[in-house]
Design goal:
This protein has helices spanning 12-16, 24-29, 47-50, 60-69, 104-107, 139-143, 315-330, 344-353, 391-394, 424-432, 436-445; strands spanning 20-21, 36-37, 88-92, 100-101, 117-123, 134-138, 149-159, 168-171, 201-203, 207-209, 211-214, 227-228, 231-232, 238-248, 254-264, 271-274, 279-286, 293-294, 302-304, 334-335, 361-362, 364-365, 377-386. The protein has 457 residues and is of the alpha+beta class. It has four domains: 12-39, no CATH class; 55-148 and 267-386, DNA-directed RNA polymerase, subunit 2, domain 6 (Dna-directed Rna Polymerase Ii 140kd Polypeptide, Chain: B, Domain 6, Beta Barrel); 151-264, OB fold (Dihydrolipoamide Acetyltransferase, E2P) (Beta Barrel); 396-445, DCoH-like (Alpha-Beta Complex), CATH 3.90.1800.10. GO terms for molecular function: DNA binding; DNA-directed RNA polymerase activity; metal ion binding; ribonucleoside binding.
């Protein structure tokens, strides 16, 4: 069809002067002078937006939001991730193929490298810990491996040599008697070659590669102590050494790459999202015996707040949940391609034929009393993504640390162990409570107060 001229590729400038119909109904019914017809209406969407199930039923900004969050979701980023030494990446333990998916998912081979897992989701207010955008998680599901992931970070050290320079770098074992060390670094985990060995546990500031700068003798011919410039892990790092690679770069310099792995189990504060821009952080986890259940004993993995639906108008989220429920009952994957024309009546009819309420609502029972809950709950499987925003990477506190020489105030930034800013709004809140001594302590005594000796002239 391409050779015969039935299919034509248009660039952005050509589209400006073209009148394109999205489907055959527009072409025949509107009686307008169209110049082209889309192969499929979903082709008007980009790669990320085209895989959103029933995306045509969502509010536009939610699809834009998911297009960004889909790139933050944990997945199998490649089939050879185990031998790659990327700077950092997350790998989901048990990714799954969605029960309801867009046709575009096959074209980009996303079914071979899924970006999430199917979980049983209930939309309900329960215990008050899922207010706003917080969600409840089933702790028993987490312990069975639900949404568990592995995080990898690679550190690189290069033994550089500069021509016509009296000093040189060398990767070696650190001898504290012969090397000038200015901090309390731990060199005990290094091997004889100065490099940490695989499977060694790593915590913050652990030395991974021992390296020194060796200087030429001074003018009088005296030997100078080598300077310690060893590679250390980040302050917040924790895990085990996964891989150590020793090689040379294009300039012939020795290069060492060390990959650290750490297991990341879902916990309070971690961020999750459906494929419809319905993102939220875990507000509380409950064991399965403390979560509501239906008449078949099925317990939800996730409970989200019902107030997230009316204002955001992500109707595609609800249709996906119904379609996934039908797919789990019939064993046939649901077609959730945008603009495909999937009928809600057909989904409801199949649900009803399989013995369920046609709108997806179910009677659940209170786990604390065993009594039936007052209202029916919208209940069924939905595909969820685990995003890379984890509480372990964001949690931070400081009791004392470095200060700036100019202002004598704490440095700024988590990576340099800086302080947390006490701003204008925080000051106003403290003032409104009348706690002046606490205000003085925060803004002066634990910030830039210092004492200096003065001589009376």
């Amino acid at each position: 069809m391409l050779a015969d001229g039935y299919i034509e590729y248009l660039d952005v400038e050509e589209e400006e002067g073209s009148f394109i119909a999205t489907d055959l109904n527009h072409l025949y019914n509107q009686k307008l002078s169209y110049t082209h017809l889309e192969i499929h209406p979903a082709m008007i969407l980009g790669v990320c937006a085209s895989v959103i199930p029933f995306g045509n039923h969502n509010q536009g900004p939610r699809n834009t939001l998911q297009s960004a969050m889909g790139k933050q979701a944990m997945a199998l980023n490649s089939t050879n991730f185990n031998i790659r030494l990327d700077t950092l990446f997350h790998i989901l333990y048990y990714p799954q193929i969605p029960l309801a998916s867009s046709k575009s998912l096959e074209f980009i081979t996303a079914k071979d490298l899924p970006i999430g897992s199917n979980g049983v989701v209930g939309i309900a207010c329960f215990t008050g810990y899922n207010q706003e955008d917080s969600i409840l998680f089933n702790q028993s599901s987490i312990e069975r491996g639900f949404m568990r992931s592995m995080f990898y970070r690679t550190y690189t050290e290069i033994e550089t040599r500069v021509e016509n320079d009296s000093s040189k770098e060398r990767i070696t074992e650190i001898n504290l008697e012969k090397v000038s060390v200015t901090d309390a670094s731990d060199f005990t985990k290094l091997d004889r070659d100065g490099i940490i060995s695989p499977e060694q546990p790593v915590v913050g500031d652990a030395v991974l590669v021992g390296k020194v700068i060796e200087f030429a003798p001074d003018i009088e011919g005296n030997e100078r102590k080598p300077k310690n410039v060893s590679l250390k892990a980040r302050r917040t790092e924790f895990g085990h050494v996964d891989t150590v690679m020793i090689s040379t770069n294009s300039k012939g310099h020795k290069i060492v790459k060390i990959r650290i792995r750490s297991k990341r189990v879902p916990q309070i504060g971690d961020k999750f999202a459906s494929r419809h821009g319905q993102k939220g952080t875990v507000g509380m986890t409950f064991r399965q015996e403390d979560l509501p259940f239906n008449i078949e004993g099925i317990i939800p993995d996730i409970i989200i707040n019902p107030h997230c639906i009316p204002s955001r108008m992500t109707i595609g989220h609800m249709i996906e949940q119904l379609s996934s429920k039908v797919a789990s009952l019939t064993g046939v994957e649901g077609n959730a391609t945008p603009f495909y024309g999937t009928s809600m009546h057909d989904i409801s009819r199949e649900l009803h034929e399989n013995g369920y309420q046609k709108l997806g609502n179910e009677v659940l029972y209170n786990p604390f009393t065993g009594l039936r809950m007052d209202n029916q709950i919208f209940f069924g499987p939905t595909f969820y993504q685990r995003l890379r925003h984890l509480v372990d990477d964001k949690m931070y506190s400081r009791h004392r640390g470095p200060i700036q020489n100019l202002t004598r105030q704490p440095t700024h930034g988590r990576s340099v162990h800086g302080g947390l800013r006490f701003g204008e709004m925080e000051r106003d809140c403290i003032l409104s409570h009348g706690t002046s001594r606490f205000l003085k302590e925060r803004t002066f005594e634990v910030s830039d107060m210092f004492r200096v000796h003065l001589q009376r002239m």
